[in-house]
Amino acid sequence: MVVEHVIELKNVNKSFDRFNVSDVKLQIKKGFVTGLIGSNGAGKSTLIKIILNLMQPDSGEVRVFGMDYANNEKSIKDRIGFVFSEDVLYDDLTLYDQKKLIAPCYTQWDHSVFRQYCDKFELPLKQKLKSFSKGMKVKATLAIALSHHADLFIMDEPTAGLDPVFRREFLDIMHDIMLDGNKTIVLSTHIMSDLSSIADFITYIQKGRIVFSKEMHEIEENYAIVRGGIELLDRDTEQYFLSIKKTSAGFEALSPDIKTVEKLFGTEAVIEKASLEDIMYYLQGGTKVAAVD
After folding, report:
1. Average pLDDT, the chain
2. Which InterPro entries does this one have (predicted)?
C-alpha cells in the first residue's frame, strides 16, 4: 500500500481548562517539509504531542504512516525522529549512557551515524548532560533523532536559543535529509526565515484551529499587503481582504489574491507581496472580514 499522507488528522478535538484544539483536519504529504506556524499558545505543541501520541485527543482520528496508535504504536514510533526545544534528556546521564538507553528502542539504530553527528556537533560523550548548554542539549537530541534512519522527523522549535551559525548548519542538515525523496519533516518554529528557505507547505494554527494549510509557493505568489486611503474601502472592496487595520491616515490590509487587488486598486494603493511574518501579524489583529474563495 502506497501512503501519500504520512500524517492524517480527522476531526481531532482536545479540551483543556482555558484552551481547545477544535475540529482539526490535517494531511501531511510524504516527501515534503511542512512548517507549523502560529503565536505562542496557538496549539502547535499540543498538535505535535497528539501526532506523537504523547497526548490523546478527546475525539477524532490520528493516523501515521496509514496506521493508528492503538494497534501500531511501536512500529510507528520506530520510524519517527523527534526534536523538542524543551529538555527531554536525563541530566544525570552522560550522552554515551543516554545513547545506550535509547538505542535498543529503535530497530535501525546506527552507532556509526550517531558517532558521526556527535563529532560534527562537538558533543562530549563522557560528560553528564546537566553540564550541557541548552544549545548542546538540542544538538544531542538532534543527533539521536538522526541516528535511526527515521522516515518522519517532527521538530518543535528545534533551533530556539541556538546561535545563527548552528541554525544555518541545521538547515543544511534538513536539506540533506530531504535529498532522499522519501523523508518527511514537520517543523514548528517562530523563525519564519528558516521556513522560507526549506518549507514546501505551511500550516497556520490560531487558537487551536487550523486557519490554512497551503503550499509555500502559493502563499508567496498570492498573498499581498495593500495600503491606501480609507476612501478606497467599501463593502465591495473589503470582501477581498482577510484582515484590515484602519487608522486616521488610511488602511493596511491582507489579501489572499494579489492579482485581483492589483486590478481593483491599480495605482491608487501600494501593493506588495506578504511574508509569513506579515500574514501572522495581520491575521492576529485588525478587523476580520470574509475571505474570498
Report:
1. 91
2. AAA+_ATPase, ABC_transporter-like_ATP-bd, ABC_transporter-like_CS, ABC_Transporter_VariousFunc, P-loop_NTPase
Give the DSSP letter of residue 26: E
Task: Tell me which residue range forms the domain holding 242.
Answer: 223-288
Q: Of 178, 203, 218, which marks where a domain is finished?
A: 218
At residue 264, φ and ψ (nearest 5 deg) are: -70, -45
Q: What's 200's domain CATH number?
A: 3.40.50.300
Residues 99 and 242 in one domain: no
The full length of the chain comes to 293
Q: How many CA atoms lie within 13 A of 257 on its CB side?
A: 14
Task: Tell me the torsion sign for CA atoms 71, 15, 43, 217.
Answer: positive
Are both 210 and 261 inside the same structural domain?
no
CA angle (126 as vertex; 123, 130 as ends), nearest 5: 75
* Measured distance CA(82)–CA(142) in Å, rounded: 8
102 plus 157 within the same structural domain: yes
DSSP-assigned letters across all residues of 90-149:
-TTSBHHHHHHHHGGG-TT--HHHHHHHHHHTT--TTSBGGGS-HHHHHHHHHHHHTTS-
Cell, residue 287: 478587523
Average of pLDDT values for 231-240? 94
User: b/e string for 165-203 if b means 16 or more Cβ within 10 A?
Assistant: ebbebbbebbeebbeeeebbbbbbbbbbebbbebbbbbb
